[in-house]
Design brief:
With 140 residues, the chain is of the alpha+beta class. It has one domain: 2-Layer Sandwich (Alpha-Beta Plaits). Helix 3 crosses helix 4. It starts with a strand and ends in a 9-residue tail after the last helix. The relative contact order is 0.25. The site of ribavirin triphosphate has 9 residues, from strand 4. It catalyses: a 2'-deoxyribonucleoside 5'-diphosphate + ATP = a 2'-deoxyribonucleoside 5'-triphosphate + ADP; a ribonucleoside 5'-diphosphate + ATP = a ribonucleoside 5'-triphosphate + ADP. One of its GO terms (molecular function) is ATP binding. Homotetramer.
């Protein structure tokens, strides 16, 4: 089933010059990028985006990190793309991530793990709408 997901190249990935690497992996996998822009989130925007993690011990650190510099936000489209993107990303902790995944190859830290990807259709819908309106998504 064709679906959409939100991908973010996090501030560590942008600062380290990994935009091209990440985009190349999506393109090589046949995943279509149907929206893309750079954002430098405020702390409040990062808190809203990660509101599901509000009670987690890492929430303060995560939202500080996510608002620390520019990020690239993208809408990806394709068959089963939510799960396929998560597969390309690898496990949250790069030490547990499979070989050849983005996090295994590039992440340096459990928090600074280069990419975000929506984890379910409901979160994808919320996360896409958090950054994009319908006119910013091509072929919609
Ligand atoms: P994401 O939401 O960013 O795609 O990552 P995920 O689903 O693999 O992981 P999640 O559990 O949703 O956690 C969101 C982000 O919080 C940071 N984190 N830090 N210090 C820690 O123990 C810890 N755990 C998670 C990571 O940046 C993680 O991607
Ligand atoms: Mg998550």
């Amino acid at each position: 089933m064709t679906e959409r997901t939100l991908s973010i190249i996090k501030p560590d990935g942008v600062a380290r010059g990994l935009i091209g690497e990440v985009v190349k992996r999506f393109e090589s996998a046949g995943i279509r990028i149907v929206a893309m822009k750079m954002v430098h989130m405020t702390r409040t925007q990062a808190e809203g985006f990660y509101a599901v993690h509000r009670e987690r011990p890492f929430f303060d650190s995560l939202t500080t990190f996510m608002s620390s510099g520019p990020a690239v936000v993208m809408v990806l489209e394709g068959d089963n793309v939510i799960a396929r993107n998560r597969e390309l990303m690898g496990a949250t902790n790069f030490k547990d991530a499979a070989e050849g995944t983005i996090r295994r190859d590039f992440a340096t830290d459990i928090e600074k793990n280069v990419v975000h990807g929506s984890d379910a259709p409901e979160t994808a819908a919320f996360e896409i709408a958090y950054f994009f309106n319908q006119f910013e998504i091509v072929g919609g």
